[in-house]
Write a structure and sequence with these properties.
By secondary structure, the chain is mostly helical. The protein is 80% helix and 0% strand.
């Protein structure tokens, strides 16, 4: 029972996908009645509530590492992902790979994995703050560059930017402003907020699979290829970021934070981009993002445990 309680998300994912495929188009109510839109707004508001930056200091932040994480996450990884996907996948899945690759780093799981690895948590939080603050503004331009090279597609860059600011940045800022008033609530129910954010990820998967069930069945043979590609991509990304950390001669704690958190991507932001600009024409383009999310959760758990075993024992 304790194992199920600790790892509840994985069986929940299986149940969510099965329910979505069973209901088919009947599951469109989550989008039709704006349930998922409100849920995403509340999830980012909760993120702002949970951001505690009071313990950050310049010694722990490793400014050069945070800037390198920004370059890796928002420039090197998108270029690497696009270059590989361009030669492997058709346009729809290539777009999907570009969407998740241009997304900023994960907001919650990267810091959790860093904690498991006994890494530099202040650096992890700083990578998250910097990456998401800048990434909101780079996504439209990066996607236009990568997708525009792949095919003759013109994206509404300004509309995308305004959508991301309103859907992602605004609720985070509001949550951060409300934190002093709701500090006690977060202290008592922080775990519940984390579960709520994971439930929004489940809602995203439900919406994606309920709207694309028929096409998923038709493209079933492609899914193993997507899985293998994403596993290979994430392995390369982890190796890239570990190599960068060694070049910068980061200490062990900062190396684990940099390697893990810079390699992670947020599915929620990817969904906002996909739903607002690609969902109708390219329904399968969210699949690489979902697979990347699941892959990083599994692979980075083992990576974090490896860093943990190599760390000095706690005194």
């Amino acid at each position: 029972m304790d194992t199920l309680k600790k790892h509840w998300l994985f069986p929940a994912i299986v149940a969510t996908v099965a329910l979505a495929l069973t209901l088919g188009s009947k599951g469109a109510w989550v989008q039709e009645y704006h349930v998922i839109t409100v849920g995403i707004f509340l999830a980012f508001f909760a993120t702002g509530l949970s951001l505690d930056v009071s313990y950050l200091n310049l010694r722990d932040l490793q400014l050069k590492a945070a800037i390198a994480a920004l370059v890796s996450s928002l420039a090197l990884i998108p270029l690497l992902a696009w270059a590989l996907a361009f030669w492997v996948f058709p346009l729809e899945l290539t777009i999907g790979v570009c969407i998740i690759a241009t997304a900023p780093v994960s907001i919650v799981s990267g810091t959790v994995m860093t904690a498991i690895a006994r890494g530099n948590i202040p650096l992890s939080v700083f990578i998250c703050l910097l990456g998401n603050s800048v990434g909101i503004f780079t996504i439209p331009f990066s996607l236009q560059l990568l997708v525009g090279v792949t095919a003759d597609i013109q994206l509404p860059v300004l509309r995308m930017l305004l959508s991301l600011v309103g859907t992602v940045l605004l609720p985070i800022v509001l949550g951060a402003l409300a934190r002093p008033l709701l500090r006690g609530l977060m202290a008592r129910h922080g775990a519940a907020f984390s579960v709520f954010q994971q439930c929004i990820v489940l809602l995203i998967m439900f919406n994606a699979f309920s709207g694309s069930g028929a096409r998923l069945v038709a493209a079933g043979g492609v899914l193993p290829a997507v899985l293998l590609f994403i596993v290979a991509l994430h392995s390369l990304v982890l190796a890239l970021n570990y190599g960068l950390s060694r070049l910068m001669r980061l200490d062990r704690a900062s190396t684990s934070a940099f390697t893990i958190h810079t390699s992670q991507k947020t599915l929620t932001v990817s969904y906002v981009v996909w739903a607002g600009n690609f969902g109708a024409q390219y329904p399968l383009a969210l699949i690489p993002g979902i697979v990347y999310h699941l892959t990083q959760m599994i692979m980075d758990t083992f990576v974090a445990e490896r860093f943990r075993r190599r760390s000095p024992p706690l005194e």
